[in-house]
Amino acid sequence: MFTVIPAIDILNGKCVRLIKGDYTKETIYNDNPLEIAQQWEKMGAKRIHIVDLDGAKAGKPINQNIIKNIAKKVSCQIEVGGGIRSFESIKGYLASDIDYVILGSIIFKDLPLFHSALTNFGNKIIAGVDLENGFAKASGWLENTKKDGLTIIKQLKKFGTSSVICTDIAKDGMLVGPNLKLYQDLSKSVDLEIIASGGISSLKDIKNLQKIKNISGCIIGKALYENKIDLVEALKLQK
Predict the structure, then answer these.
(1) Range of the structural domain that residue 209 is part of
(2) Residue 184's domain is classified under what CATH number?
């Protein structure tokens, strides 16, 4: 099953998009993220990707009350990332109508916690690997890990990770199409469900990703807000 996942990024309590993760380059699209989530639900979305941008920078959840309220008010599956770096934060989200928790920075900062999360919560844990020029970044993309993305994803497979969201930072918010070569290379190298993120700006981009083995879905953000992609049409491509 290939899943099209609309995205909501929350900064200062508002629905925003950044360019390449740059906090100084934000565009506010709605003061109420719940309205956006309800809009995606009404259009047929089965799953929504939510990022707490304040949390990603702070290293702890900041907008969790807004996110938990969204999860209560919509029937879609919700996946959440951003600043989730303690067992309590993981447990708190999963106990509050959240379906999946995305863990990124702790892969580099606290591997035992990542292992513990996988052991306790299984496929409710999604690994988030954000790449710039092939190397992973952490802490809201503000920190260079100097670790090769492919090597990391291979290690995650060995740990028992079932799903990885892989974002190409250079493409994020640019509306220039995804890095197909990156996903083709990953697909050839590791047998793991990969959700593509970054740069998706047309239905053709989605169709191109669907042709790649192991790509199980894609996250779409700015293209929806800028009306480059009609979510209803994108959801029809799911199979």
Answers:
(1) 3-236
(2) 3.20.20.70
